[in-house]
Here is the input.
Amino acid sequence: MNLSSTILNYINGELVKPQNNKWLDNYNPAIGKVYSQIPDSDEADVNAAVQAAEAAFPAWSNLSRVERSNILHKIANLIDANKTALAEAESTDNGKPVWLATRVDIPRASDNFRFYANAILNFHDESFPMDGKHFNYTVHQPLGVVGCISPWNLPLYLFTWKIAPALVTGNCVVAKPSEVTPMTAFLLSQICIEAGLPKGVLNIVHGLGHSAGMNIVKHKNVKAISFTGGTKTGAVIAAEVAPKFKKMSLELGGKNPNIIFADCDFEKMLKTTLRSSFENQGQICLCGSRILVEKSIYEKFKTRFVEEVKKLKVGNPKNDDSRLGAIVSKPHFEKILSCIELAKQEGGNVLCGGEAIKGEGECAEGWFIEPTVIEGLTQNCKTNQEEIFGPVVTIQPFETEEEALQLANATEYGLAATIWTENISKAHRIAAKVESGIIWVNCWLVRDLRTPFGGMKQSGVGREGGMHALEFFMEVKNLCVAI
Ligand code: NDP
Here is the structure.
């Protein structure tokens, strides 16, 4: 499997050019240069994809769940077999270290297919015999054609997290990956062909959000939209989808608190906090970007954290010793730098980082930023309120549990939170009051795929994961029969 210089749409089982023959540049952020072209698809391509999906739906939805499950297993196995090429593609598109894509993103993509291939076999309807006179039961049915739209930060992992449950429940899918990171989705389309996925069951349309993406969202025959991305985009999509009464799942942005109490296991916390702050260049929606530290250990934390952050190597994603790679795109690189400037204007004190870095060798023109730690900002400033989505964290002291909670909950977001304490009662007490859909105590980014995943407040609507995703992609009927 080679990285191609021309990415094609996957429509009706074939790899095809966009009908308008318009193309977009695809950049390798580590070297700052265009390395491939991707379709700038529009309404005509989306219409063709929806048409293919509609035509494929009767046969696909009539297959037994075991038959659909078997095809998903084949796709999972082919992802594993092509792990090296996929990890290279993911890193080339996104700038993340190859070791990270190899260890996390790609295995997780095959896990997604495997998990849902197994989950569907355990999914069951309910029946309620009613005193021998009636029999009440449920029947779940696929929706038809559904739309899946995903972001650039975990390209294949989030794309497959949506597609796998949609397919295994018998739906046909029109999907759009982020135009910033399209290569793994293109490789996935080749894998689907090799796995024998019937034509039209999955269609991948590449292109921009406001054209390709919006045409999927708007299409009258697309019955549900599963979207992961920024909160502003989520609002635009919700405004379009809500009056049409389509099913909708929105996984949006975050400004996650990392609450560190003095009685934590300090060394374990420090090691994990380095990851939860800067993994994937801080471009994971679940990264803790606001670090709240109990005052009695604030100075100790500050000294040790900054010392360790300074040791994190930023560089060529191909190198095993690069802890951080490149920022995903030039506009995002510039946005992060402008956020750091804003933090300074707001009175922030940059304790380390804060600057762009020039890469070595082939990476001289790449987009790299030092991991950055800022203190001295109030909770209500923009830096602590708005998502930066880069290698930038703020640190703030707190004195009491009440203050920690007040700071933790003082944003419009509610995606994830991390709590560090060895006091089990305190952990439960705080966790119950933190306004976040996902809460970790003394760990980070660990999750059983069977659990619900999603945010509160402006971090989203609905839950993905486990049976929740299977439920989302199906209609449930309530049937009652007199005996
Ligand atoms: P965007 O919201 O910009 O884009 C997400 C996807 O939506 C992309 O494929 C994009 O296409 C597409 N899109 C953009 N505008 C529209 C539109 N009007 N109609 C339909 N589709 C559209 O997010 P980013 O790609 O910048 O990703 C980063 C964001 O994702 C962060 O806010 C992060 O927190 C969030 N995120 C949330 C997660 C969660 O689970 N809650 C997980 C991971 C990320 P294009 O690329 O062409 O703009």
The radius of gyration is 23 Å. Residues 149-153, 158, 176, 178-180, 208-210, 213-214, 217, 228-230, 233, 236-237, 251-254, 285, 387, 389, 415, 455, 459-460 surround NDP (CB under 6 Å). The mean pLDDT is 97.
